Hints:
13% strand
Amino acid sequence: MTRPRIPFLSLAPAPAGDETSREVREAIDRVISRGxxxxxxxxxxxxxxxxxAMGAAHAVxxxxxxxxxxxxxxxxxxxxxxxxxxxxxxxxxxxxxIMMAGARPVFxxxxxxxxxxxxxxxxxxxxxxxxxxLPVHLYGQPADMAALERLAARHNLALVExxxxxxxxxxxxxxxxxxxxxxxxxxYPTKNLGxxxxxxxxxxxxxxxxxxxxxxRNGGQSDRYRHEEFGVNSRxxxxxxxxxxxxxxxxxxxxxxxxxxAASYRSKLSGGPGPDVPVxxxxxxxxxxxxxxxxxxxxxxxxxxxxxxxxxVHYPIPIPDQPAIAGMNPQDCPEAARACHEVLxxxxxxxxxxxxxxxxxxxxxxxxxxxx
Length: 372
């Protein structure tokens, strides 16, 4: 298969002389030479550094972003018989995490402009078994947290944030993950802050939640060999923590670059025929993905591929339509279904050049010029 001229993303290591690559290799060597690989000094240091960077009092490293969500819910006492309202447009892992905690995911449709869960639809979905609201800061754009805060307070519900695509994002100036009771982050390699494998973390300003999270991630142990409660084995390992420590100081610069590239896309795509570019509702958007909405998506993807430009779809199937969710009696969400047929992710990452953005836009406009 021919490599695209403009790949969607490349995770290959940078050249050996690259400063970031050097820092990562030094971090790996440090862990190997120490010979301590699970719940050691690298995890402890990363938790402190990540909490400070995200504006939170506490961070707890776990195995994945999915585990982070599930363990937050468990730490809040949410489980069998309870319901958690979330979005139908996201990676399915958001809903699967609710199910991992033993609760039932209930889906409220999205705001078609923001593409995150619609507070008005959540209000209609609240029932006697509802215990929490779980918004996703999708593609790096914060959900409408002011409205969700009011809703959660009115109905005495926990507000848990899925921040897996939103490292350093803010909602009206407030760091995501600190607005609700806790926030879940993923360090999957493609994320804005990615590891070289799986990893996740929870941030919170509630010490009791952080303490329970530390027990739950480690088999429910309060001390070595003393298991106080039913926990799991979900621990961020030392190697990934060290890699993340090396990369974390770069995150603000990478975020600025993502925003600059997104602004360039927006400027170049404005006016004339072209894809529908979703509105940036908050300047705290961190552009994990740059998504447009299009008709005849397969046609456009084929045209871009013929120009050497790789695109992806996030996400083609609404979560309620996933076979794994069928037993949960999910609701129809027409706005999410429409978005799943139209969204297309264009290349956007810190290594993308201004010239490559211009090439993508030229190819896009060439397609629309042909179909007018």
